[in-house]
Amino acid sequence: MCVSRVIIIACVLISSVHMARGADEFEQPPINYSQSTPLNKVSALQDAIQKKTMVVRRDDRLGYLPDLLDKLKIPVESQLLVFSKTSMQRDRISPRTPRAIYFNDDVYVGFCHAGNVLEISTADRQLGTVYYTLDQNEKPPVIRRQTESCLQCHGSAGSDGVPGHLVRSVFVNGEGLPLLAEGSFRVDHTTPLENRWGGWYVTGTHGAQRHLGNMIVSETAPRAGDNADGQNVTSLREKIDAADYLTGHSDIVALLVFEHQTHVHNLITQAGFATRQALYYEAELNRAFGEPVGNRRESTTRRIESAADKLVDGLLFVNEAPLTARIVGTSGFAEQFVRAAVRDRQGRSLRDFDLKTRLFKHPCSYLIYSPAFDDLPPVMKECVATKLRRALAGNGGEQFSHLNPADRQAISEILEQTKPDWWRVRDR
Length: 428
Known about the structure:
The protein is an alpha+beta fold. The protein is built from 11 helices and 8 strands. The strands form 2 sheets. A 6-stranded antiparallel beta sheet has the order 1-2-3-4-5-6. The protein has a two-stranded antiparallel sheet with strand order 7-8. α1 runs antiparallel to α5, α5 (about 250-290) runs antiparallel to α6 (about 300-315) and α6 packs across α9 (about 380-390). The chain is globular and about 65 Å long. The protein starts with a helix and ends in a 5-residue tail after the last helix. The model is unreliable at about 1-25 (pLDDT under 50).
């Protein structure tokens, strides 16, 4: 092939890469998000229902919600209540009838009182977050995958350009309408508490720390108000009818875990997609230039390492907003969450809470044990392991200064004993 033709092909390939990145790159090869077959806990349940090897029973009051949570092993203690009209069933949501969210490490379920469907999202092994609905009145139940309708919000810049989760704090009026002109906050574990939970109910105690939860903005309670009545709330009986839900709680500890978890799920998706895309484009360019298969390009390495840096920062709680007083929930979520702990020989776990100065005692995310993390491409997992080991050895950079020597040693020992095959990869 002549040199000019090779150059033309390479230019076309590079141009197509840039176009894909600007137009839902995840819908292009090699991800092919909407066209690919999911592999996750919800798709497995869907298959079992279709094959009639599992039955999801309907409750007269709450529809399929109780049994669905049971089948997916989602604890009722995880219940969160959001009263802003910021989801697909917005007409069902108000301060009196908030939307409930239940979650475990992999799956999230949204429920609206008198709603038509249950909204489900889950971390998929290859596709990031995958979305489903389950009709509350259909018999037998059918779990249907959703793409375009959910991706309008959950596949945009708000979720970092990948199919993911978006947690927001907004100012809300008495009808539940978000007052976007007043501003809003995208929330993860780096967000100061004072900017969190606008439009959410919050039950639990937190001392003198302030937040935006439980607040209705009105002429008598404007945004500039101090929201004193919304702080350290332990009961919602004056705000909702608890009989419409599985519990009467919107636990503050569950909220903190939920915000960290959704953030790291998004980072895991970014890391997986970035690696697979970089390797795919590299193979195309190598083919065009007649280079050997597997020839590593600098652009490939840069893209993989950039995504790995972001994931490591998320795993190690870089820039985590500090707590200044003890956090205590109301639903029993904290006790339930710790029961799933993977422990080292000293009894330490990444699920152990601190809740006085930070969320966890050993600040490295428990999602490092998740199927989504385990199924990252090997080159990404090796890169993350290398960067984590450097950070925990004190050589990772200033952003890890929040980890003192005892923190770094404890996390290293926990990972070495509970995830040894991955943790012991050699430094390249």
